[in-house]
Amino acid sequence: RRQARLERDVYKRQVLRMGLEAVKVRHPRLLEVASGEELASLVGHDDEQVAELGFVELRRRFDPSNPDLSVVAGLLSSESERAQELGVQLLTDSAHVWTRSPQSTLAFVGLGAGSGREAAARLFVAASVGLPGDIREALAIRLVALLSEKEPTEGAFSGYAEAEMCIRDRMRKALEEIL
Q1: Distance between start and end Cα atoms, the chain
Q2: CA distance 80 to 4
Q3: d(Cα 35, Cα 105) in Å, to the nearest integer?
Q4: Burial class of 93 by CB neighbour count within 10 A (0 to 12, 13 to 18, 19+)
Q5: d(Cα 133, Cα 17) in Å, to the nearest integer?
Q6: Distance of CA 145 to the CA centre of its chain
Q7: CA angle 63, 64, 65 (to 5 degrees)
Q8: Among the listed residues 71, 99, 106, 98, the one whose alpha carbon sits nearest the alpha carbon of residue 86
Q9: Looking only at Cα atoms, what is the longest distance across the chain?
Q10: Whole-angstrom Cα distance, residue 97 to residue 105?
């Protein structure tokens, strides 16, 4: 059994090397037609060269002013540390877009525990200074509704709670300025 497993591992590495060679040498444009989700899965690959191919292509085509937020969310939710790090970079680069959308803001600050949720909460807090009142109000209403529910697991709503406290603080300051 052990010998068979070793042979299978050697075979997988050979197939992987041949595939990498084919993409790099004979079909370099193949990555250009890959979907964002396909590239994100490459970034999460355990082989460094495969991960680098996906990383470079995602960075090349990512437009912070028109981000594919589903790809960012996929990277942040990955088990791969490299994919999560790229997700945080892209989240940071595109914060000026997604923090203006209540739906996207709630999706990112509501991610499972990890660096993605922490980065989203930090970026939202920083961006909340310039949020238009209608967006703050929409977020506040949705956050109050979410936070009135029971947490599925302890700490699951911590990103929501941080965003809610930030909005509450910004609204209080706005009221103080008016009064």
Answers
A1: 78
A2: 28
A3: 24
A4: middle
A5: 54
A6: 24
A7: 90
A8: 71
A9: 78
A10: 10
Which amino acid is it at 76?
L
State CA 88 to chain mean position distance: 6
**Residue 155's CB: how many other CB atoms inside 10 A?**
11
Which pLDDT band, with edges at 50, 70 and 90, does 73 fall under?
very high
Contacts of 145 (CB under 8 A, 6+ apart): none
Tens of pLDDT, residue by residue over 115-132, are 788 888 888 888 887 888
pTM for the complete prediction? 0.77
Q: Which two tokens stand for residue 114?
A: 């990890």
Q: How confident is the model at residue 83 (pLDDT cuts 50, 70, 90)?
A: very high
